[in-house]
Amino acid sequence: MRLLLVEDDIELSQSLQKKLTGKGFAVDIADNGLDAEFMGDEESYDIAILDLGLPQRSGIEVLTNWRKKSNKIPVIILTGRDTWHERIDGFKAGADDYLGKPFHIEELIMRIQALLRRTHDMTGQILQCDNFQLDEECQQLLIEGQEALQLTGTEFKLLRYFMLNPSKVLSKTRLVEHVYDQDFDRDSNLIEVYIRRLRNILGKERIVTRRGQGYIFMDSIA
Ligand code: CA
Predict the structure, then answer these.
(1) Which domain holds residue 99?
(2) Do 39 and 83 belong together in one domain?
(3) 189 and 148 within one domain
(4) Are residues 59 and 147 in the same domain?
(5) N or C of the chain: less Cβ packing under 10 Å?
(6) Rounded Cα–Cα distance for residues 32 and 188 (Å)
(7) Residue 150's CATH number
(8) What pLDDT is attached to residue 80?
(9) Ligand 1: centre distance to CA 57 (Å)
(10) pTM above 0.70, yes or no
(11) Are 218 and 162 in contact (CB under 8 A)?
């Protein structure tokens, strides 16, 4: 899952980026409204975390412009603690959730995970599929009747993206875009290596290859 973090407080954005990266998110930062709007339109983000008070273009304007252009990127706005009117304006402009500053990073992570599940029509608190679960907190795979398996960062990110998008043809490019941030050297052949690893763990039939198109994650296997 790839996030766009829009925040002009550099200290805050860098500390958030570090923590979110540790939780298996690829994070790109914009520190002003103009860059934020452009990046949100050009790149494939799963969620934007949008501060409202920004240089060059306010968060509300950025969000309003995205929605005008039918950009449906899910948005969590960051607002001042006691500024209820900002929250109202944010929701009116098309925000999906909000968080008042200052906040605990744990709450932001919970809201991101909940919003991701909501936007992918998933219910419940855990990512589950047939006989296994993905523990997002510990980045472990829990397979029924087996010991918990610790995944590497990329294995976790890739599997989470697959589990949130079952039964869809996902191209290599799309997988790369949603698993890595913009600074990453995006060699899409690397994805194949990780898909092979996931197949070794979950069984070959779990991830089907569509030649020339991409991969399909099967959420249930007959
Ligand atoms: Ca600000």
Answers:
(1) 2-119
(2) yes
(3) yes
(4) no
(5) C
(6) 30
(7) 1.10.10.10
(8) 82
(9) 11
(10) yes
(11) no
Rounded distance from Cα 32 to ligand 1 centre (Å): 9
Take residue 84 and report the two structure tokens written for it.
């209820």
Least Cα distance to 104 among 7, 2, 15 occurs for 15
Tell me which of 92, 119, 146 is where a domain ends: 119
Residue type, 198: L
Ligand 1 center from residue 35 Cα (angstroms) = 14
Q: Which chain residues have CB less than 5 Å from ligand 1, an ion?
A: 8, 51, 53
CA 96 to ligand 1 centroid distance, Å: 19
- Inter-residue long-range contacts of 101-110, CB under 8 Å, 24+ positions, other chains counted: 103/78, 105/16, 105/19, 105/20, 108/16, 108/20, 108/49, 108/76, 109/19, 109/20, 109/23
Tokens in use for 7?
Answer: 């925040």
List, for residues 72-120, the tens digit of each pLDDT value: 999 999 998 778 899 999 999 999 999 999 999 999 999 999 999 888 8
Q: Is 26 left (phi over 0), alpha (psi -120 to 50) or beta?
A: beta
